[in-house]
Amino acid sequence: MTIQPLLSVKDIRKTYGGRIGCTDVSFDLYPGEVMGIVGESGSGKSTLLNCMAGHLPPDSGQVLFDTRDRGMVDTLTMSEPERRMLSRTDWAFVHQHARDGLRMGVSAGGNVGERLMAVGARHYGNIRTQAIDWLDRVEINEDRVDDKPSAFSGGMQQRLQIARNLVTGPRLVFMDEPTGGLDVSVQARLLDLLRGLVREMGLSAIIVTHDLAVVRLLADRLMVMKSGHVVEHGLTDQVLDDPQHAYTQLLVSSVLQV
Amino acid sequence: MYVAVKGGERAIDNAHAWLAEERRGDVTVAELTVPQIREQLALAVNRVMTEGSLYDPDLAALAIKQSRGDLIEAIFLIRAYRTTLPRIGHSHPVETDKMACDRRVSATFKDVPGGQVLGPTFDYTHRLLDFKLMAEGEVPEAVEAEPRIEPTPHVTSFLNKEGLIQTEAEGEDTPPDLTREPLELPANRALRLQALTRGDEGFILSMAYSTQRGYGNSHAFVGELRIGKVAVEIDIPELGFAIEVGEVELTECETVNKFAGSKVEPPQFTRGYGLTFGQTERKAISMALVDRSLRSKELGVEVSNSPAHDEEFVLYHCDNIQATGFLEHIKLPHYVDFQSEMELVRKMRAEIASASAKEAAE
Amino acid sequence: MSDYNFAYLDEQTKRMIRRAILKGIAVPGYQVPFASREMPMPYGWGTGGVQVSAACLMPEDTLKVIDQGADDTTNAVSIRKFFEKTAEIAVTEKTREATVIQTRHRIPEEPLKEGQILVYQVPIPEPLRFLEPRETETRKMHALEEYGLMHVKLYEDIAKHGHIATSYAYPVKVEGHYVMDPSPIPKFDNPKMEMAAIQLFGAGREQRIYAVPPYTKVVSLDFEDHPFDPSKANHPCDLCGAEHTYLDEVIIDDDGGRMFVCSDTDYCAERQAMGHRGRLSPEAAE
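^ inputs. structure came back:
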C-alpha cells in the first residue's frame, strides 16, 4: 500500500525582478511528518514558505494538498474562498513575531476562540472551556484567559499563538522561525512544548529556521537552502551528521563551534 | 405635569428668522454686496469654487454672504446646488501650456523659457497689518507688462526631453466622475485627483506637511506653479467640432520628486500634480504632494504606515462636507440609543451589587 | 415649488438610486455602493435616508418621518418639511396611513403592512467597521462570510461583562448570509425586522444602500448559551400604561424624579385617545 502525501510541492519558482527568491523546489510531505527548511537569511526559505502557505504568489509551480473532499488539489489555483477556508480549518501558520499572528486588542481566550468561531462554534461556554484547555496545554495559567496578549511576555505570546493555531486541529502547520527573537531559556521551553504537541497530535509541519538545534529536535527530514536553491536534503540526522554539500558542512561546523 | 416636547416646527422657523437677522448684523452698517465679495474676497471665493466643484464666482460669493463667511458652510451650499444641475457634457481637457499666466514660478531652475513671473502674491509681503485699509482709499495702479502671446511650456517637459522624469502616459478612457459614481477602492489616479481637489484645504495641507516631516518620505520640489486663465472647449455634436465656451482661472502645480529607481528602471524623477480653481496655490501645492505620496504603491516604492501613504485614509477623510456633517450630527437627539445604554449599565451595576450583597451575607 | 424636480433629485439620479435599491432587495443585507449626492442637509443628518425616500416617493404617496420614534423632533420636522416643499406630497403622523416612513433610530410599535416602505437613516453601514477599519478588507470578509471576528466581539463582551454589551445597532444575519448593521435602533426593535413591509437602508456619506425584503429571515447574532435578549426597561408608559413598548426616560425635576413614556409618540397618543391611562396621565393624577 502506498501512502498518499499530504502536501506535494512541484517546481516552485519565485523571482523578484531579476533576483531569484527560490527556484526548482519540489518535495512531498507525508502525514505526521515534520520537514525542516534551513538556510541563512536571504537563502529563500521564507519566500518558499510564504509561497506554499498562499501568502505570496509564485511565478510557477504547484502546491498540491490532500483536501478532505476533493483529494489532491493545487492550492495555488483554488478560489480565494476555498483557500481562505483551508487556512481556517486544515492549515495553520505560526509567525516569527507573535504580534503578527495574534489580535493584540483581544483577550487570550478570544484569540484562541476566534478560530473556533470562524468555523461555526456558537456556544460560549464550550468555546471558553476549549480555550482554557488549550491555554493549559501551552502552559498558560487559566486565570490569564481574559488578559490581553500585550500583557504577556514574549514566550507566552508565542505559546498563545501556537494555541490559537492548533485549537481547530489543523492537518498541516507552517512555522516561520517559531523560536526566533526569544531568549535561549525561553526557546528551550518552547521547543520542548512544540515537540510534545507534534508527537501527541501527530502533526504534519513545515518549519523554517536558521537554527539547527530547532530542526534537530523537531524535524524528521531536512532541506538545506542556499541562494534560492535546495542544495541538500535527507533525513535530519543523516544531513546533520554526514553533510555532503560544502555549504551544509559549513553550516553544521559553524554550529558545532558554538 | 409633563407635556411632551412639541413645537419643533415653530422652533425651527424662529431659529431661521433669528439667523437671518444675525447674518445681516448691525443695520446701520452698509450691507455687503455679492460683487464686493466676488472682487474683494476673491481668495475665499476661489476656495469655495474649488472645494464646491463649481466654477461660478458669483454663486460662490453669494454662498459666502449667505453663510456669514463660514467657508465650509458656503462650500456645502454650492455642493448642494451643484448636485441638482444636469451633467450636459464634458469639455476637452484644458491645455494648461496655453494658459495666460498671471503667475508662474519654478523652484528647480533659476530661469526657464517663458520666464519666472511673480504675479500677485503674498510671498514677499511683510506680514504687517496695514492700518490704511481701515479707511477706504484708492489703490495706486500696478505696473503692467506686455502680455505673452505664445504658449508657455511646462518646466517638467524640459526634464522629460532628457528622460529624467517619468512620462505620464495619456489616459485612454474618459476618467470616472466622482460626483456621479461611488468612490470604490482601490481608486485610480484620476479619481484620487478629483477627491483631492474637492478635499478640505486644511486637511490636504496637513497631510502634505506630514510627508515633509518624515511621515512618508518623499522630498518634493515645486517644479512649476502657474496661475492664469485657460480656454474651455466643448464638442458640439451639431457642429461636428469643438468651440470655446469660456475661460476659467486655474492654479496648476507640478512637483518633482526623486525616485531611486527599481531593478528594471533607472533612477528618475517622478511627479505630483495639483489643479484647482482660481488662485489657490497653497491647496494646489499640497495636493501635488499628497498625490505623489498616494502613488507610492504604483511607483513600486516603499509604502510606509504613514497616513499620507494610505489611500483609504486620505480619500475617506478629506471631504469637509462629509466630515463636518458626520461630526455635527452628534448634536442630533440620540436618546433612544442612550436609553438602551443606560438600561444596560444599570442592569450590570445591579448584578454586581446583588452579587456582592450575597457575598457579604454568606 | 418648481425650481427643483419632484422630490428634489433629478430623474437620472433617482433611477440610479432605484437600481441600487433593487440590487439591495435582490441580495438581502448586501451593501450596494451608490453615487450618493450632496443633499441640502448635512451628511450624517439623514442624507442617505432622504435620497432613498426621494427615489421611492410617488405623487400619491403619504409620508411619515420619525426621529427617535417621534414625529415632532426637530430633524424629523425638517426632513418632513423638505419633502412637503419639494414633492408636495401628503404627510401624516399615523403609522397606519403612511406608505413611506423614514426613520432614525426606531421601528414603529405598530406592525407594518405589505405595501409600506420603511426607510432607515444609517450613519455607519458596516457592522465590521470597528473591528476592521479597512473597506477593502471588510468587503472581502462579507463576500467570504468570514464573520468569526463579529463573534469575537460578542465573546469579549461576555468575558468582560457577563453579557453581550451591545444595546443598539445590534448586528443581525440576513437570510443566512450577510451580517448587517440594522442602523442604531435599540436591540428591542430587532425582532420586528422580520416584517411584511420593505425595509430600505440609506447611508449617504458612506455611499451605501442595503435592504431587507418582506418576510426575510433576520437573526440577531448570539451564542447558544447567551441567547439574544431584546429586553427593555421594566416599566409601563406613564402616559398610556403600555407595558410592551420602548420607552424614553424623562427627567422631570431636580431631585432625580423621572418618568417613562413611549418613544413612539403616534402609538402613545392613539392609546391615550382610546382611553388607556398611565401613572402620570393628567386624568389619573387628578
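The first strand of chain B starts at residue 100 and ends at 105. Residues 335-361 of chain B form the longest helix (27 residues).
thumbs up if we can close this ticket
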